[in-house]
Amino acid sequence: MNKKQTWENAQEILESLGLSKAKNEEALKLFGALLAPKVGGGGKGSRPLPKMIDGEAHYYCRYTAQYYPSSEMIYQNDDKRAKLEDKGYSKLGISLWNKGQKYLKNLKTKSVEIAFDDEATEEEMKEGIRMHKEAKHLAEHNLMNNAEYLVENFSN
Q1: From CA 29, how far away is CA 9, in angstroms rounded?
Q2: What's the CA gap between 143 and 100, in Å, rounded?
Q3: Which of 8, 12, 16, 118 has the highest local Cβ count within 10 Å?
């Protein structure tokens, strides 16, 4: 049962309980936040349509917020459909995201290793603290999911 069917069933059940109109509306408001279908449905229709650039279809990358030809997009092969369908991400976008995640993981790992190293020098401890602060800053400001930041810092 999908979310829409669950919402419709909840409405029917509430109506069948014979509650007063005010109580019924109050209960629908409570359940509405959890079960009501979202505007736009969150489906494929919410993505921008392909653009024709130089006679070739270019698709929107949700990560870099740019259009790329189909050869530069990531695809999934869904057996239920006869065609390949793009996931909405370009190869560049996925590459940048992976590089950013690897960098963040390395920062965290190295800072912890230094912190627990009994033989670490004062310089190494300062470097470990710097790494920890940088990792914390990147995480707090969600910079590893910011395409502009990643393009600026991790593009070759």
Answers
A1: 15
A2: 9
A3: 8
Contact 64, 154 (CB under 8 A): no
Q: Which backbone phi and psi does 47 adopt, to 5 degrees?
A: -90, 150
Q: Cα–Cα distance between 111 and 133 in angstroms, integer? A: 9
Dig out the tokens for 68 from the structure. 């790329």
CB 137: neighbour CB atoms within 10 A? 10
DSSP state for residue 37 in the 8-state scheme = P
pLDDT of residue 22: 82
pTM, to two decimals: 0.58
The length of the chain in residues reads 156
Query: Quick one: how far is CA 37 from the chain centroid?
Result: 20
Contact 144, 138 (CB under 8 A): yes
Q: How far apart are CA 103 and CA 96, in angstroms?
A: 11
Which residue in this structure is represented by tokens 């370009």?
90
Cα–Cα distances in Å, from 106 out to 74, 93, 95, 122?
26, 20, 16, 20
φ, ψ at 84 (rounded to 5°): -75, 145
pLDDT along the chain (156 residues), means of 10: 73 80 78 60 62 86 86 71 65 87 90 88 90 86 77 76
pLDDT of residue 155: 73
